[in-house]
Amino acid sequence: MTEGETDVNLNYDVIVVGAGPAGLAAATVCARAGLETIVIERGRKPGTKNVMGGVLYTRPTAQVFGEFWKDAPLERCVIEQNAWILTEDSAIKLGYRSPQFAEDVPNSYTVLRVKVDEYFAQKATEAGALIINETKVDEVLRLLLLRESTVS
Ligand SMILES: Cc1cc2nc3c(=O)[nH]c(=O)nc-3n(C[C@H](O)[C@H](O)[C@H](O)COP(=O)(O)OP(=O)(O)OC[C@H]3O[C@@H](n4cnc5c(N)ncnc54)[C@H](O)[C@@H]3O)c2cc1C
User: Fold this and answer.
1) Nearest CA owner, ligand 1 atom 46
2) If phi over 0 gives left and psi between -120 and 50 gives alpha, with beta otherwise, what is residue 128?
3) Would you tell me which of 24, 64, 82, 86 could form a disulfide with 95, CB atoms 3.0–4.6 Å apart?
4) Best probe residue, ligand 1, of 16, 42, 63 (max atoms within 8 Å of C-beta)
5) What residue ranges of the chain have pLDDT lower than 70?
6) Helical segments of the chain, H only
7) Atom of ligand 1 nearest to the CA of 49
8) How far is the CA of 51 from the centre of ligand 1 (A)?
9) Tell me, what's the pLDDT at 51?
10) What share of the chain is helix, strand, coil (3-state, %, to 5)?
11) Which residues contact 57 (CB under 8 A, 6 or more apart)?
12) What is the CA(47)–ligand 1 centre distance, in A?
C-alpha cells in the first residue's frame, strides 16, 4: 500500500442512507443474506437525529430482530391505546386498557430512539453491516450499465 491509499473496502452491494429503524432493518436483512452492506448516517450515532421517543410495535420489529424484548433497551410496555375523533367543540374517544397487555409478549413498548436505534445498529453490525456516522449523503449517482448489444 502506498502513502495516501487506504485499506477500506469501497465496493458494496448495498448502500443504505440513514441509520433509522428502516435503514437498519434493511441493512440487517441484506447483511444476513450475505450482501456487503454499508449504512451512512449523518448523526453522531444512530438515534441522535430522530424523534425523541415513541411506541415500538412488537410484531413487525420481531420479524427482523427476533426476540428483541429480551435484551433491547425498552422503557415500558403499553397497556392503553386511544384514538380521538375531534370536531371543533367535541371529541369521541375509542380505546382499550388492560393489564393483560403487559403479560407474555406485549403488543408494543415505549422506547427512546437514542437507545433503541443504537440497539438496532448493533444488530446490523453483528449481521456484518458497516455503519459510518457523521457523514451526510448529498447526492445519489446513478450508474447505468449498458449491455453491449448487436443490433443489425
Ligand atoms: C412526531 C412523530 C412521532 C412519531 N411517533 C411514532 C411512534 O410512536 N411509533 C412509530 O412506530 N412511529 C412513529 N413515528 C413515525 C416514525 O418516526 C417513522 O415512521 C420512522 O422514524 C421512520 O423510520 P426511518 O428509518 O424511515 O426514518 P428516520 O427514523 O427518520 O431515520 C432516518 C435517518 O436517516 C438519517 N439521514 C437522513 N438524511 C440523511 C442523509 N442525507 N445522509 C445521511 N443520513 C441521513 C437521519 O439522520 C436519520 O437517522 C413518528 C413520527 C413523528 C414525526
Assistant:
1) 18
2) left
3) 82
4) 42
5) 1-9, 144-152
6) 21-32, 58-65, 113-127
7) 47
8) 7
9) 87
10) 30, 25, 50
11) 107, 108
12) 9
pLDDT of residue 126: 98
Residue-wise burial string across 28-41, b where 16 or more C-beta atoms lie within 10 A, e elsewhere: bbbbbeeeebbbbb
Quick one: 123 exposed, middle or buried, by C-beta within 10 A (0-12, 13-18, 19+)? buried
pLDDT the model gives residue 7: 61
Contact 79, 104 (CB under 8 A): no
C-alpha cell at 111: 422506547
User: Which residues have any ligand 1 atom within 6 Å of their CB?
Assistant: 17-23, 40-43, 49-51, 54-55, 136-137
